[in-house]
């Protein structure tokens, strides 16, 4: 069966309109927070918690990529999940520092699928977070360091 050209043009126009609609109806408001110990012991695991907070009125399917400091010799961690509407999701992992000193975590990148599922968007990322490793496990001040950046 052969379709007239206007049917094909209408189908392409509809597809483009749906893609544009998907982009504009998805105004995701995400907040990213990373919690890490202020200090950790050389060669011992230290826990990292990454929180993705969804302040939007609809759930989001996300992919998060967190870049640990260079001292841990690990590739960026990638996580997948669904953040409920006005809710949050937590991802936990550990790092093992291989040198002493103060180092920065890399950035955290978030990608999410729009409401109609047609478009994947990248949100802003969490900036670098300082991290210190010493010979002893002495912790001074707060037990956790939190960095947050609001994205829109």
Structure description:
- The structure is a single chain.
- The protein is mainly beta.
- The protein has one domain: Immunoglobulin-like (Sandwich), CATH 2.60.40.10.
- 14% of the residues lie in helices and 43% in strands.
- It has 1 helix and 11 strands; from the N terminus they run αβββββββββββ.
- A hairpin with a 6-residue loop joins strand 8 (108-113) and strand 9.
- The radius of gyration is 21 Å and the shape is elongated.
Question: Care to give the gist of this entry?
Answer:
With 152 residues, the chain is mainly beta. The protein has one helix spanning 5-25, and strands spanning 30-36, 39-41, 46-54, 60-66, 77-83, 88-95, 101-104, 108-113, 120-122, 130-134, 145-151.
Compute the number of structural domains. 1
Radius of gyration: 21 Å
> Beta fraction of the residues?
35-45%
Q: Please give the CATH architecture.
A: Sandwich
Shape: elongated
Low-confidence stretches: 135-152
Overall pLDDT score: 76
Count of strand segments? 11
**Largest sheet, described in full?**
4 strands, antiparallel
Count of discrete alpha- or pi-helical segments spanning 4 or more residues:
1
Strand order of the largest sheet: 6-3-1-11
Oligomer: single chain
The CATH superfamily title? Immunoglobulins
Distance between the termini: 47 Å
CATH classification, class level: Mainly Beta
Overall SS class: mainly beta
- CATH topology name, in short, is Immunoglobulin-like
> Which H/E pattern describes the elements?
HEEEEEEEEEEE
- The percent of residues in helical segments reads 10-25%
